[in-house]
Design brief:
Number of domains: 4
Order of helices and strands: EHEEHHEHEEHEHEHHHHHEHEEHEE
CATH superfamily of the largest domain: DNA polymerase, Y-family, little finger domain
Number of strands: 13
Distance between the termini: 44 Å
Length: about 350
């Protein structure tokens, strides 16, 4: 019987990607705390998309309000998000990755997985080639993790940032993954971290010592089993080279909370138009339309409507969005509005 080769999965994560691209265009900012987010104005609403490592040393983190980032780091340089430029650089580093192996899973603008199992070169040689070619093609650095599965590869890519390379073997899990905090496991967020802390669990190794029955009792069967396996470095998820999107959405946060109906209506109409344009541009139709509304006190509501047939035109999407809006009581000022479409299908499907 032929032995099944041990999987070799590579996870690549670009280092402070948006900020790194901006520093290529503004080399005079190298070595300074730089924050990328929103329109680049920390006195207005917006969140941090990324920051240089110099800004992170002050506690600035992705998802943080720009105003908070300014308080933490008053000397930071704030720049607006330029998605068109970031997507251009994203395409360039992913072209390098696909030339090494066509078995690539695109995980977003700044990261991807490669399956190296069928390649006959060493992991070190492959990773070195990818890093050198990306640097030559883009001027950017990346961090790479290589392990027997996607979960461990992603964790490995975070272990030696920036410009790092970490290779994990199955026997490394206890010694190198065990001491890490549970938040280092992809899929464990702050709420789970807090609940595990109440159980006396703070590290991955401590989580691995918890019986599966106890985890299932605390978190339910699906998530409990996930936690049990993840703590042991078990992950059988395959590399997915293509998948169909589940939904598309657009949303906006008002610079000032509003209770003006005309402003709300114009925003819903504009978001519906943008979502319809996204659908037609990508060749999809949607069967469901929903809205997201967040009041000034951060209370958030969603409503959804199922259409008789899939659509990609602005008019039915806008009409359904307003029907959803009509099911909410607008008794407070509004902070955020969003329009979402789901149950997507190919427009050319017969």
């Amino acid at each position: 019987m032929t032995a099944v080769p041990l999987r070799r999965i590579l996870h690549l994560d670009m280092d402070a990607f948006f900020a790194a691209v901006e520093l290529l265009r503004r080399p005079e900012l190298k070595g300074k705390p730089v924050v990328i987010g929103g329109r680049g104005d920390p006195t207005r609403r917006g969140v941090v998309s990324t920051a240089t490592y110099e800004a992170r040393a002050f506690g600035v983190r992705s998802g943080m309000p720009l105003r908070t980032a300014l308080k933490l780091c008053p000397t930071a340089v704030f720049l607006p998000v330029d998605f068109a430029e970031y997507h251009r650089y994203s395409g360039r580093f992913k072209t390098v990755m696909r030339s090494v192996s066509p078995q690539m899973e695109d995980r977003g603008i700044d990261e991807a997985y490669l399956d190296l199992t069928a390649l006959d070169r060493s992991s070190e040689a492959i990773a070195g080639e990818i890093k050198d070619r990306i640097r030559a093609e883009t001027g950017l650095t990346c961090s790479i993790g290589i392990a027997p599965n996607k979960l461990l590869a992603k964790m490995a890519s975070e272990m030696q940032k920036p410009d790092g390379l970490t290779i994990l073997a199955p026997e490394d899990v206890a010694a190198r993954i065990g001491p890490l905090g549970v938040r280092k496991v992809p899929g464990i967020g702050p709420k789970t971290e807090a609940r595990l802390a109440q159980m006396g669990v703070q590290t991955v190794g401590e989580l691995a010592a918890v019986p599966v029955e106890a985890l299932v009792g605390q978190f339910g069967r699906a998530y409990g089993v996930f936690l049990y396996e993840a703590a042991r470095g078990i992950d059988e998820d395959p590399i997915v080279t293509h998948w169909e999107p589940r939904q598309r959405s657009r949303e906006t946060t008002f610079q000032e909370d509003t209770g003006d109906w005309q402003t709300i209506a114009r925003t819903i109409a504009a978001l519906a138009r943008e979502v319809a344009e996204d659908l037609r541009g990508e060749g999809y139709r949607a069967r469901t339309v929903g809205i997201k509304l967040r009041f000034a006190d951060f209370e958030t509501h969603t409503r959804e409507k199922t259409l008789p047939a899939p659509v990609d035109a602005e008019l039915p999407i806008r009409k359904a969005a307003f029907e959803c809006l009509g099911r909410l009581k607008l008794d407070r000022r509004v902070r955020l509005l969003g329009v979402r479409v789901g149950e997507l299908s190919r427009a050319d499907a017969t």
